[in-house]
Write a structure and sequence with these properties.
0% of the residues lie in helices and 64% in strands. The protein is mainly β. The protein has one domain: Thrombin, subunit H (Beta Barrel). A six-stranded antiparallel barrel has the order 1-2-3-6-5-4.
């Protein structure tokens, strides 16, 4: 992995159920908290549009490459600028623990 390709700053976030106070229904409030901020290569791979819920929906598949970081799971998300990327899968190429590929999706609803 070439360090020069890791030229974008991202934050990996994890969903945490907060302890009380809960909302008015007594449910815990879930918040996204930062796990780690790292350098990454952000590579859009494909986009598609489809019709759902009587609206045109758009979805983009993005590969985010980072140095190996243990504990990253598909239940987390990536904050990239003001964009939120949901992590769909985590790949450790050849299981060498050198690089990780986070296969992410970003969905946008158009009017």
């Amino acid at each position: 992995m070439f360090a020069g390709r890791l030229n974008k700053r991202i934050t990996i976030q994890q969903l945490v159920a907060d302890a009380p106070p809960a909302n008015t229904l007594g449910e815990p409030q879930n918040t996204w908290t930062a796990v780690q901020t790292v350098w990454a290569a952000v590579e859009p791979l494909q986009g598609r549009e489809f019709w759902a819920q009587q609206q045109i929906q758009a979805e983009i598949t993005i590969r985010v490459r980072i140095r190996y970081l243990s504990g990253v799971t598909s239940g987390m998300r990536v904050l990239y600028g003001d964009r939120i990327l949901d992590i769909d899968s985590v790949i450790d190429p050849k299981e060498k623990h050198v690089e990780m590929q986070l296969m992410c999706s970003e969905g946008v609803t158009n009017g």
